[in-house]
Write a structure and sequence with these properties.
This protein has 167 residues and is α+β, with helices and mostly antiparallel strands. The protein is built from 4 helices and 6 strands, in the order ααβββαβαββ.
Length: 167
């Protein structure tokens, strides 16, 4: 029975790859243009600081940046005890990582921010506010207070996902 299912799946995949239907081929050709659409649909809160969802379509490169914190290139913690300084360093690390992936803040569609409990999140967001204002579209954002991060001196960690349309 297991072999029959595998053969059926393989057959479906082969048939899907051999599509000769002109209508379906036209649909495929329509999606060769990359699109990134930021939405805050009716029925959901509209906030200029973030979008509610992002839809990507077509040939794009996706860049995933893992959690960045207040460590400089020498591995030293910057701004111990200061959320604002640590947020600035985490943002700088994100920008460096994005550039290495061929992206920039303008390509960020998803941003996660983790702040250690007891910190005033406003100080962290104040530190990165100027850079966020330069983004042409606000990304979708998740922020959360956490009990702790990987290193006891870390007060904030951020990760992002960026989508770069291929030309």
């Amino acid at each position: 029975m297991k072999n029959v299912i595998v053969i059926q799946i393989a057959s479906v995949l082969m048939l899907a790859g051999c599509n000769t239907n002109p209508e379906t081929q036209n649909d495929m050709e329509k999606h060769t243009q990359a699109e990134v659409t930021y939405l805050s649909p009716e029925g959901l809160h509209k906030n200029p600081a973030y979008s509610q969802l992002v839809v990507t379509q077509g040939p794009v490169r996706t860049v995933y940046v893992g959690g960045q914190n207040a460590v400089d290139k020498e591995g030293q913690i910057v701004g111990k005890g200061d959320l604002k300084i640590q947020s600035k360093q985490a943002l700088e690390n994100i920008k460096i990582a994005l550039k290495a992936g061929g992206a920039s803040l303008s390509h960020v569609i998803k941003w996660n921010v983790y702040i250690v409990e007891g910190q005033d999140a406003r100080a962290g967001f104040e530190a990165i506010q100027d850079d966020l204002k330069t983004m042409p579209h606000p990304p979708i954002v998740t922020s959360a207070y956490v009990v702790g991060l990987a290193q006891p001196d870390f007060l904030v960690e951020m990760d992002v996902i960026a989508v770069v349309p291929e030309k």
